[in-house]
C-alpha cells in the first residue's frame, strides 16, 4: 500500500502568496506611466525619505496610494491636481494585493477651477466667521461655577465602537457632565441632518459628531453643503471629533470646537474641567493670577500699542522734520534772495537818499545864507525905519511943543500985558513964572 501512495506538492501560505506575487507581472509595473488626479496628504510623516499619500480621481473618490520622495513632496500643494510620472508597485498582505504608485517626477500641476460647491463652502465659512464661535471653556466654566452639569449629546455611527475612547479621555471628569449617546448612519448626510433637527428641539449645551476616522471616501459626507448649513444654525456649541489631523472637513471648519479623535475630545473636556476644578479650590490665588495675567497682557498690549504709536509718531516726526528742514532750506534760500534784492534796493535808496540829503543840506545852507542876508537887510531897513519913525515922532512932538510954546508965549504975552496992566497983581506973576518953569523942564526932558 505504501508503494501506491499518490505524491502531490505541499505549499505553505507564504509560498502560495510568493507564487501569485511573482505571477502578477504587468507593463505598468515595469515601465514608467503617467497618473493624473487630486493629491491628498497622508499621515504627514516621512518613512525612509518617502511620504505615503493618496491620489484621488478627479470625478469621484476612488484613490490609489502614493509613495512620494521627500524632495518632490515639498513641491506638492494639498488637494491640487497633478500629473505624475512613475511606476506601479504591488505588495501582498494577508492574502490581499495592495497597489501603490511610486512617483519619479512631477510632470504638471493643473490650475484648480473654483466650483459652485467650493464657492458655497467659502460662503458658509465666511458666515461662520461673521457669527463667531461659541467658547466651550466659557460654557463649562459658567456651568461648573453654578454647580450645574453640562448636558452633552454625542452622535456616533450605528456600529461605532469609539465610545469607550471618549470616556477614557474624559476619565474622572465624567461627574461634571450629563452625557447622552445617540447614533445614526454617520456616512449619510441626510441621516445626520435628520438627527440634528431632532436634537435641536432638545435642551443640550453641546452637540458633537464623533467617529474614529475610517476611509477617506466616507469623510466626504462631512463636506456636504446641506449638512453644513444645518450645522452652523445649531444653538448649542457644536463639536467635531471625526478624523485624524489631516482629515479636515468643512464641518471641522464650521464647528465651534474641533478635536481630531474621540479620545482627544474626552481628554479636552477633562482638561477644561480639571483646570476649572483646581481654580475653584484655589479660586483666590488663581483669580489673582488670572488678574495678573490679564493685567500683564493688557499692559503688554498697551505697551506694544504705545510702542507702535511711538514708532509711528517717530516716523511722522522724522518725516515732518525732513519736510521742515526742506522748507527751512527753501525759505532760507528764498529769504536770502529777497534779502539780497532788498540790500541792493536799500543801497540804491541809501545812495539816492544821501545825494538827496546832500542836495537838501546844500539848498538849506543857501537858503539859510539868503535868509541871513535878508535878515541883515531887514534889520537895516528896520533901523532906518526906526530912525525915521523916531525922527517923525520927534518932529511931531517938537511941532506939538512948538505949538504949546507958541501958545504959552501968547499966553505969557497976554499975561505980560495983564502984568503991565496990573503990576500989583503978584499972584498972576507967580503963576506965569511957575508955568514957565514947567514948560522949560518939559522941554529940557524931551530934548
Automatic annotation (TrEMBL):
<dbReference type="InterPro" id="IPR020579">
    <property type="entry name" value="Exonuc_VII_lsu_C"/>
</dbReference>
<keyword id="KW-0540">Nuclease</keyword>
<keyword id="KW-0269">Exonuclease</keyword>
<dbReference type="Pfam" id="PF02601">
    <property type="entry name" value="Exonuc_VII_L"/>
</dbReference>
<dbReference type="GO" id="GO:0006308">
    <property type="term" value="P:DNA catabolic process"/>
</dbReference>
<dbReference type="InterPro" id="IPR003753">
    <property type="entry name" value="Exonuc_VII_L"/>
</dbReference>
<keyword id="KW-0812">Transmembrane</keyword>
<keyword id="KW-0378">Hydrolase</keyword>
<keyword id="KW-0175">Coiled coil</keyword>
<feature type="transmembrane region" description="Helical">
    <location>
        <begin position="426"/>
        <end position="444"/>
    </location>
</feature>
<dbReference type="GO" id="GO:0008855">
    <property type="term" value="F:exodeoxyribonuclease VII activity"/>
</dbReference>
<keyword id="KW-1133">Transmembrane helix</keyword>
<keyword id="KW-0472">Membrane</keyword>
<feature type="domain" description="Exonuclease VII large subunit C-terminal">
    <location>
        <begin position="189"/>
        <end position="409"/>
    </location>
</feature>
<protein>
    <submittedName>
        <fullName>Exonuclease VII, large subunit</fullName>
    </submittedName>
</protein>
<dbReference type="GO" id="GO:0009318">
    <property type="term" value="C:exodeoxyribonuclease VII complex"/>
</dbReference>
<feature type="coiled-coil region">
    <location>
        <begin position="296"/>
        <end position="330"/>
    </location>
</feature>
<feature type="coiled-coil region">
    <location>
        <begin position="357"/>
        <end position="425"/>
    </location>
</feature>
Amino acid at each position: 500500500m505504501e508503494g501506491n501512495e499518490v505524491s502531490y506538492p505541499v505549499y505553505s501560505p507564504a509560498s502560495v502568496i510568493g507564487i501569485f506575487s511573482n505571477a502578477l507581472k504587468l507593463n505598468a509595473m515595469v515601465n514608467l506611466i503617467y497618473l493624473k488626479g487630486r493629491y491628498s496628504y497622508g499621515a504627514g510623516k516621512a518613512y525612509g525619505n518617502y511620504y505615503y499619500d493618496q491620489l484621488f480621481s478627479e470625478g469621484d473618490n476612488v484613490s490609489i496610494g502614493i509613495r512620494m520622495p521627500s524632495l518632490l513632496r515639498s513641491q506638492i500643494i494639498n488637494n491640487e491636481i497633478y500629473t505624475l510620472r512613475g511606476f506601479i508597485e504591488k505588495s501582498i498582505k494577508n492574502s490581499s494585493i495592495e497597489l501603490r504608485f511610486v512617483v519619479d517626477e512631477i510632470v504638471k500641476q493643473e490650475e484648480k477651477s473654483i466650483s459652485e460647491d467650493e464657492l458655497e463652502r467659502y460662503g458658509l465659512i465666511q458666515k461662520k466667521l461673521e457669527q463667531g464661535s461659541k467658547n466651550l471653556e466659557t460654557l463649562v466654566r459658567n456651568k461648573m461655577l453654578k454647580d450645574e452639569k453640562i448636558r452633552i449629546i454625542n452622535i456616533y455611527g450605528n456600529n461605532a465602537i469609539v465610545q469607550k475612547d471618549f470616556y477614557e479621555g474624559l476619565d474622572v471628569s465624567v461627574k461634571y457632565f450629563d452625557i447622552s449617546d445617540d447614533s445614526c448612519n454617520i456616512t449619510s448626510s441626510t441621516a445626520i441632518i435628520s438627527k440634528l433637527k431632532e436634537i435641536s428641539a432638545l435642551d443640550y449645551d453641546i452637540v458633537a459628531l464623533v467617529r474614529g476616522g475610517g476611509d477617506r471616501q466616507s469623510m466626504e459626507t462631512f463636506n456636504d453643503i446641506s449638512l453644513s448649513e444645518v450645522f452652523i444654525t445649531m444653538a448649542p456649541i457644536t463639536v467635531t471629533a471625526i478624523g485624524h489631523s489631516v482629515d479636515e472637513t468643512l464641518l471641522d471648519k464650521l464647528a465651534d470646537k474641533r478635536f481630531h479623535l474621540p479620545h482627544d475630545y474626552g481628554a479636552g473636556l477633562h482638561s477644561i474641567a480639571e483646570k476649572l476644578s483646581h481654580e475653584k479650590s484655589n479660586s483666590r490665588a488663581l483669580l489673582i493670577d488670572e488678574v495678573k495675567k490679564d493685567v500683564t497682557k493688557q499692559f503688554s498690549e498697551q505697551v506694544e500699542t504705545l510702542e507702535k504709536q511711538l514708532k509711528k509718531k517717530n516716523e511722522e516726526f522724522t518725516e515732518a522734520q525732513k519736510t521742515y528742514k526742506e522748507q527751512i532750506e527753501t525759505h532760507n534760500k528764498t529769504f536770502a534772495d529777497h534779502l539780497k534784492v532788498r540790500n541792493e534796493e536799500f543801497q540804491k535808496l541809501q545812495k539816492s537818499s544821501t545825494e538827496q540829503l546832500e542836495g537838501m543840506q546844500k539848498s538849506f545852507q543857501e537858503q539859510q545864507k539868503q535868509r541871513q542876508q535878508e535878515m541883515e537887510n531887514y534889520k537895516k531897513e528896520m533901523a532906518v525905519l526906526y530912525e525915521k519913525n523916531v525922527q517923525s515922532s520927534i518932529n511931531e512932538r517938537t511941532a506939538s511943543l512948538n505949538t504949546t510954546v507958541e501958545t504959552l508965549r501968547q499966553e505969557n504975552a497976554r499975561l505980560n500985558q495983564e502984568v503991565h496992566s496990573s503990576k500989583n497983581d503978584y499972584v498972576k506973576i507967580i503963576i506965569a513964572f511957575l508955568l514957565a518953569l514947567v514948560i522949560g523942564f518939559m522941554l529940557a526932558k524931551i530934548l
